[in-house]
Amino acid sequence: MVWSSFIRSPIQNMNKIRFLLPKITAKNGINPTQVCHSGSMVITASRWQWHKTKDTIHFYLMVAGIPITLLITYANVFVGPATLTKTPEGYEPKYWEYFRHPISRWMARNFFDNPQKDYEKNLAAIYEETQLMKVRALEQKVWNLQKERQDYKYNYFLPYDTFGLRQFRELVKRQVDGME
């Protein structure tokens, strides 16, 4: 409980019987006017953030929600779902033609990849990972055999790029061929 609440109740009671007390006038003879009825002000948190959030939500509903609703209604009423028909001989349907709803077909055609392409990408990734596993297994086998036979350690070998060496050999070969 707040200390000011102890004082509030006698002041509120005083306001009820104020008409019985003589009027107090200021030094200049003007009666002071009462600004508020109860003589107290309730302090509350600001609701500005809530109103701003609500306004933003309503704005984006109007900007995006209504056109999307109209588009979906148009697609359902005027275009409608796809129906099965016989395909001509030699015609292979596109992957988006298998979807029933027109919006699903449009999204599949414009935004999503071909499922066959995704499948082949996954197969390629699996193949590369399998090859990498084989190389790592071979390296482990080499490491174990070198340790078992007390051979030279393979990690002392520093690999280098042979591109420059191959170019140098070709240059020497061309010069030798040019001299003959």
Automatic annotation (TrEMBL):
Protein's organism: Trichogramma kaykai
Superkingdom of origin organism: Eukaryota
Regions crossing the membrane: 57-79
InterPro entries according to UniProt: NADH_UbQ_OxRdtase_B5_su
Function: Accessory subunit of the mitochondrial membrane respiratory chain NADH dehydrogenase (Complex I), that is believed not to be involved in catalysis. Complex I functions in the transfer of electrons from NADH to the respiratory chain. The immediate electron acceptor for the enzyme is believed to be ubiquinone.
UniProt subunit comment: Complex I is composed of 45 different subunits.
GO cellular component: mitochondrial inner membrane
Membrane topology label: Single-pass membrane protein
Subcellular location: Mitochondrion inner membrane
Protein name: NADH dehydrogenase [ubiquinone] 1 beta subcomplex subunit 5, mitochondrial
Keywords: Electron transport, Membrane, Mitochondrion, Mitochondrion inner membrane, Respiratory chain, Transit peptide, Transmembrane, Transmembrane helix, Transport
The keyword Membrane is assigned to this record: yes
Family the UniProt entry places it in: Belongs to the complex I NDUFB5 subunit family.
Major location category of this protein: mitochondrion
